[in-house]
Amino acid sequence: MPTKERRLQLHEELCTILGSRNVYFQPSGTVKMKYPCIRYSRDRGMHIRADNKTYIYRQAYQIMYISTDPDNEVVDKLIEHFSEISYNRSYVADNLNHDVLVLYY
Known about the structure:
Layout: H1 3-18, E1 23-25, E2 37-50, E3 53-67, H2 74-81, E4 85-93, E5 96-104
Parallel strand pairs: 1-2
Antiparallel strand pairs: 2-3, 3-5, 4-5
């Protein structure tokens, strides 16, 4: 499947998990996000190599769930839904809670 189609498929899955269209792919600084939301961007991928060739490449995405509520079920839903996802960290900025995950998709 081409990269763009695969990313659009991921976008729709994230919208379904969140239960809204507040999902943003690499938004510019002028985009006014509505919370709670998922913000995601391309990250460093994973290469599986042998014989000086790449046999498998998995695109990585940084998935960030942003909400005013520190307790949420969305992160648990993301972890349950995707098999190649890991929780990275959490932090608070501008009175918003950020949960960061890394997804290979």
